[in-house]
């Protein structure tokens, strides 16, 4: 296995990780922004107010994007396992 192969596998792994985590991060970011605007408008400065809506948003996003995320991970792992013989020999 050459250093180029290792770097390419690492790049692909980071790419898949970012693609899988992006929907959850975006849901948390948007929810946090909406809650922050609500808190600023109503002058409610409670730090725990944003926890439950973020949790619900992440859960809903996970339910909606979960099949896509699992498919993406499964395809990557399948390609990785199929390339093992070429890497060894």
TrEMBL record:
<keyword id="KW-0472">Membrane</keyword>
<comment type="similarity">
    <text>Belongs to the FliQ/MopD/SpaQ family.</text>
</comment>
<keyword id="KW-0969">Cilium</keyword>
<dbReference type="GO" id="GO:0044780">
    <property type="term" value="P:bacterial-type flagellum assembly"/>
</dbReference>
<dbReference type="Pfam" id="PF01313">
    <property type="entry name" value="Bac_export_3"/>
</dbReference>
<dbReference type="InterPro" id="IPR002191">
    <property type="entry name" value="Bac_export_3"/>
</dbReference>
<feature type="transmembrane region" description="Helical">
    <location>
        <begin position="12"/>
        <end position="35"/>
    </location>
</feature>
<comment type="function">
    <text>Role in flagellar biosynthesis.</text>
</comment>
<keyword id="KW-1133">Transmembrane helix</keyword>
<protein>
    <recommendedName>
        <fullName>Flagellar biosynthetic protein FliQ</fullName>
    </recommendedName>
</protein>
<dbReference type="GO" id="GO:0005886">
    <property type="term" value="C:plasma membrane"/>
</dbReference>
<dbReference type="GO" id="GO:0009425">
    <property type="term" value="C:bacterial-type flagellum basal body"/>
</dbReference>
<keyword id="KW-0282">Flagellum</keyword>
<keyword id="KW-0966">Cell projection</keyword>
<keyword id="KW-0812">Transmembrane</keyword>
<dbReference type="InterPro" id="IPR006305">
    <property type="entry name" value="FliQ"/>
</dbReference>
<keyword id="KW-0975">Bacterial flagellum</keyword>
<dbReference type="GO" id="GO:0009306">
    <property type="term" value="P:protein secretion"/>
</dbReference>
<feature type="transmembrane region" description="Helical">
    <location>
        <begin position="55"/>
        <end position="77"/>
    </location>
</feature>
<keyword id="KW-1003">Cell membrane</keyword>
